[in-house]
Design brief:
Helices cover 48% and strands 15% of the residues. Strands 3-2-1-4-5-6-7 form a seven-stranded parallel β-sheet, sandwiched between helices. The protein is α/β, with parallel strands linked by helices and 248 residues long. The chain has one domain: Rossmann fold.
Amino acid sequence: MTQQMPVAWVTGGTGGIGTAICRSLADAGYQVLAGFNNPDKAKTWLETQKADGYENIDLSGVELTSFEACQNGVRDIREKYGPISVLVNCAGITRDGTMKKMTPDQWDVVIDTNLNSVFNTCRSVIEDMLESSYGRIINISSINGRKGQFGQVNYSAAKAGMHGLTMALAQETATKGITVNTISPGYIATDMIMKIPEKVREAIRETIPMKRYGTPEEIGRLVAFLADKDNGFITGANIDINGGQFMG
């Protein structure tokens, strides 16, 4: 009988950082389910992964802002692949604006997508993890959740809230074989960053002590490290990966 691969669910898995995370976990021997919000783009993305040899990556389209949808999505993954042993919360959006101009809708959609979704996913996987006395939860926050950012009160609040959830849940599960950690990336060379005008990109790069952007693969390797079954003594931590741009 073929041994079943452990299962990892990566929300926002088809994005720039998400793709690197999915590949790193797939390389580490996980069956990876990548979350998405655009079915057509996701289908093309999956074809690319398969063409590159990643047969153990598949898609999982779940409306993360809906608790019921997350519960159903986790059930569907369990029935097809087995219980989720690694959850990576990587999905996120921005709706920038200063407090003076920000609308309630801008606030609500970012909090709902970037923070409430983390409750929905964690709550949906935690019972299986507790039952098996094993789990890895990794929340992808941001340097802006650590230091704040002009024009991003909604995003900064949501990303800071992610680590608050991390620390509390880590305490609740510390004796249960489950670790919960946060990663806070700085500026990473994704397609979104590279579309910024070169002059602006260079100005941003100059604010980074290492004088370069991070790579998605560096985030992916860190996720795989935290997800490893032998790394069971790191929990409740926030790991900054920002080239020295924020140290605190």
